[in-house]
Q: What sequence folds into this?
């Protein structure tokens, strides 16, 4: 009987190293942009939540004033200090609209989001009981 020598591979071939390196580079190429995009979505969500909270706070304050005081306060609207820092380039404005539905206050908040987008809006009514269409006013 002739004995054959079996060769055992001790180490890694160049082909295996190239395949492993290619896989690692492709995984980094996939996950790096994804992680950046996720970070931007988190930041955008945080800014949206802060903007909504600021609008809700301003709405609560203005609707509690009553119509004449609310109208007088609208030109001087500005964001609270912490919100102004968190929302770059922010602009807050409001308007009173009176029609058959009653008197409502519309607040709009816009800030620099990196792309062109609609401002965040919130509507609140100043009248406790607006007139219904066809309903007569009591005399």
A:
């Amino acid at each position: 009987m002739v004995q054959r020598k079996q060769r055992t591979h001790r180490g890694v071939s160049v082909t295996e190293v190239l395949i492993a390196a290619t896989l690692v580079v492709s995984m980094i190429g996939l996950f790096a942009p994804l992680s950046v995009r996720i970070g931007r979505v988190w930041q955008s969500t945080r800014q949206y939540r802060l903007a909504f909270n600021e609008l809700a706070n301003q709405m609560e304050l203005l609707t509690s004033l009553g119509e004449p005081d609310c109208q007088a306060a609208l030109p001087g609207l500005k964001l609270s200090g912490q919100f102004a820092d968190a929302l770059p380039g922010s602009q807050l404005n409001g308007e009173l609209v009176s029609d058959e539905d009653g008197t409502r206050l519309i607040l709009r908040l816009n800030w620099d989001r990196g792309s062109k987008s609609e401002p965040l809006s919130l509507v609140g009514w100043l009248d406790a009981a607006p007139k219904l269409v066809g309903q007569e006013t009591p005399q």
About this structure: The chain has three helices and three strands. The mean pLDDT is 83. Residues 4 and 10 are 18 Å apart (CA to CA). The first helix runs from residue 14 to 65.
